[in-house]
Amino acid sequence: MSITQTFYNNLATQYDKLFLDWQATTREQAEILNKIFENNGFDHTAKILDCACGIGTQSIGIATLGYNVMASDISEGELAEAEKRARENKVKICFKQADFCALSDTFTEKYDIVIAMDNALPHMLSSSDLEAAIKSIANQIEKNGIFVASIRDYDSLLMEKPPYSPPYIHKTDKGQRVSFQTWVWNDDNYKLTQYIIDDEETLQVSKFECEYRATRRAEMTELLLAHGCSKVEWKFPDETGFYQPIVIARKA
């Protein structure tokens, strides 16, 4: 099992603690994605694949809006949590375990829209791994379809290589919850440790470890153009309302 699978399997049942209100976040992000889809010529008849669905933060939200959604992830733990949350939200989504570097092993159908949000692609720890992922994803997109993904603003982060992320402090009914990350850099790669501190009736501290590669926007743009996309554009938080830069790539 890879470090990424282990990270998300362990984090799955606590992932929603990274948000003040996970349910509200699904609605907010669904509206952001819906606007992107509509601005690129799609309506609710579009077939969508969320190839890094996690616990369903985006897939459940857009399914609630009426889209036909297929969802996959490499983590069994996250898929189990996503399936439970889809039932609770009364939406029908077909979830499958799949590595987005080899989507054709699981999916024969192509999709109008493929998404991979929340910094999923920087789990690829080398340029060749990233290329394999983008080639695999592009292969599942219909002609004139789009790929929508978000990554951290690594172009800015690589200038300073900060040792940690600012903490999120969420007030709860019984106290507060604090989450933050520490980052240990090795060239463009960094080891991430996610801490979640529940300071409520009793103090509980959880710790999860993973690794990322700081992926520059120019590298991703070049790979998308090399693997069948004719147009690649980047949208930033001040324009979209999403917390990370978003790439939108049109399949030729």
Overview of the molecule:
This protein is of the alpha/beta class and 252 residues long. Helix content is 32%, strand content 33%. It has two domains: 3-152 and 215-251, 3-Layer(aba) Sandwich (Rossmann fold), CATH 3.40.50; 156-211. Strands 3-2-1-4-5-11-10 form a seven-stranded mixed beta sheet, sandwiched between helices. Strands 6-7-8-9 form a four-stranded antiparallel beta sheet. Helix 5 (127-139) packs across helix 7 (217-226). The protein is globular. 36% of the residues are buried. The model has no long low-confidence stretch (mean pLDDT 97).
Provide a quick synopsis of the model.
This protein is an alpha/beta fold and 252 residues long. It has helices spanning 3-11, 22-39, 59-64, 76-88, 127-139, 154-160, 217-226, 237-240, and strands spanning 47-50, 68-73, 94-97, 111-116, 141-150, 168-172, 175-186, 189-199, 203-213, 229-235, 246-251.
Number of domains: 2
So what's the oligomer here? Answer: single chain
CATH structural class of the largest domain: Alpha Beta
Sequence stretches where pLDDT stays below 50 over 5 or more residues: none
Quick tags:
252 residues; alpha/beta; Rossmann fold; 2 domains; seven-stranded mixed beta sheet; four-stranded antiparallel beta sheet; globular
